[in-house]
Design brief:
This protein has one domain: Herpes Virus-1 (2-Layer Sandwich). Strands 2-1-3 form a three-stranded antiparallel β-sheet. It is globular. Helix content is 16%, strand content 11%. The protein is of the alpha+beta class. It contains two helices and three strands; from the N terminus they run E-E-H-E-H. The longest helix is centred in the middle third of the chain and has 6 residues. The mean pLDDT is 97. It holds the Pfam family DUF1272.
Length: 74
């Protein structure tokens, strides 16, 4: 199950689990659309492809909440 990290690792912008706009690699490194574009959709950590993260909504989100551990080190 995806961790659904709450923020962009590069700029710190909030990325709610129930909204689109987050991009992840296979290791779940997480970036906003602007940062993913800046990286040309390649993860700077592992070199993997950054893809749209699916949203988690409704009962799925209620019973499997998103992570609250922020990754931005700003």
């Amino acid at each position: 199950m995806l961790e659904m990290r709450p923020d962009c690792e590069r700029c710190g912008v909030d990325l709610p689990a129930d909204e689109g706009g987050a991009f992840i690699c296979s290791f779940e490194c997480t970036y906003c659309a602007d940062c993913a574009d800046a990286f040309d959709e390649r993860c700077p950590n592992c070199g993997g492809e950054l893809l749209d993260r699916p949203a988690r909504v409704g009962k799925a989100l209620a019973s499997n909440p998103a992570s609250t551990a922020r990754r931005f080190k700003g």
